[in-house]
Amino acid sequence: MNLAIRTPIALLMLMLLGGFAGCTVPPQPQLRSGSLPFPGLFTLYEPFNAEDVDGHSYSVPPVFKKGSKGIVYTEHGGFIDIAHVRWTVDWGGYYHARVHRALSQSETSLTLPTDKFSRFALTFDYPEDWHTLSQGERAQRVDEIALRLGQELAWTLGHWHEIATFYGYATLVVVSEYESAFAYCDTFSHLLGLRILEDALAYQREDYDRDYDDAVTAAFFDHLYRLNPFSVAQTYAAIDAVEGRWWIDRRMLRRQLALGLEGEPIRPWLIPNNHGEPGRYGEASDVPGMHDLADPAYRNFVTIQIQPRILEANTIRAAAGAEGNLINPEKHFPPIIEDIRRRHQEAYGPGTTQP
């Protein structure tokens, strides 16, 4: 549920910095508190009213911002967790800035934080033409890679967050986050965040002086309204429509486990057309990442590994079949997801990872 941790000093620094663009690297993103997509004690559920919401804020804690989180049902994207959307946008923006600076300096490795005390360990193996590119060509290449790698890292972080919480990690040790892991609102919310990030960065390229929060706010509203968000009352009705099938008594009966790696499309879960029927899949959407780069030589020039620094790491490594300490998302996430699928279906029956 709690999606990031940062220190008060870092928060103050960012408040002084304001928006960021280009190679400016802000402090780590702020704490954001998500929720389960249904009401109940300890679910932290609250409805999101798309008609009464403030703009995006990278720096100001959500406690001071109305409309910074909540659950809303949309016609085309199913349930959306607004905190997960904003969290993905900001971690993607942070990774974009860090990668942009590293590539601009032709660094060969980079270590990045996550919100789970763990670390991303990146290794760059530059193609032969990297050092022969003109200054303008290299700057363009850096822009392209930083965007796609920033998106891929934010997407990977979203999965790592869900994996860690499924196996027992909790930001607040006394409050379990198990029921929130791979909730049916999470995956598409992360994907929505990647799309918003891409448009926000494009807005900043068009107007270099444009504030990051302002650019994200514009992109946020553009994408949210394309999905046709429901009213608060309609969202409650949508939640009621899947009670007993997707959730019951503060428990998650079904989990969405699609990884979307290497461009595999993601399909949001939509509520049934009629009460008592199965849920539906929405339109398939591609996940942006390094595979979108035009030059094949650059699609695989970076190796991404996770250095787990949580108590649940041994259990996760065992599920992955990892021999060493590091988790390779491309190699190890699929067997981890299969272990999660097996455990969940043993508890709730076959087919419970489908709508």
Overview of this protein structure:
- The protein is mainly alpha-helical.
- It has helices spanning 8-17, 82-104, 135-166, 186-206, 212-226, 232-241, 313-320, 329-348, and strands spanning 71-74, 78-81, 109-113, 119-124, 247-248, 251-252, 269-270, 280-281, 302-307.
- A hairpin with a 3-residue loop joins β1 and β2.
- α2 packs across α3 and α4 crosses α5 (212-226).
- The two termini are 22 Å apart.
Key terms for this structure?
two-stranded antiparallel sheet; 355 residues; globular; mainly alpha
Largest sheet: 3 strands, antiparallel
How much of the sequence is in beta strands? 5-15%
Mean of pLDDT: 89
Q: State the assembly state of the protein chains.
A: single chain
Q: What is the C-alpha radius of gyration, as a whole number of Å?
A: 20 Å
Alpha-carbon distance between the two ends: 22 Å
Low-pLDDT parts are 4-19
Shape: globular
Strand order of the largest sheet: 3-4-9
Order of helices and strands: HEEHEEHHHHEEEEEHH
Continuous helix count: 8
Structural class: mainly alpha
Percent of residues in helical segments?
Answer: 25-40%
How many β-strands, per DSSP?
Answer: 9
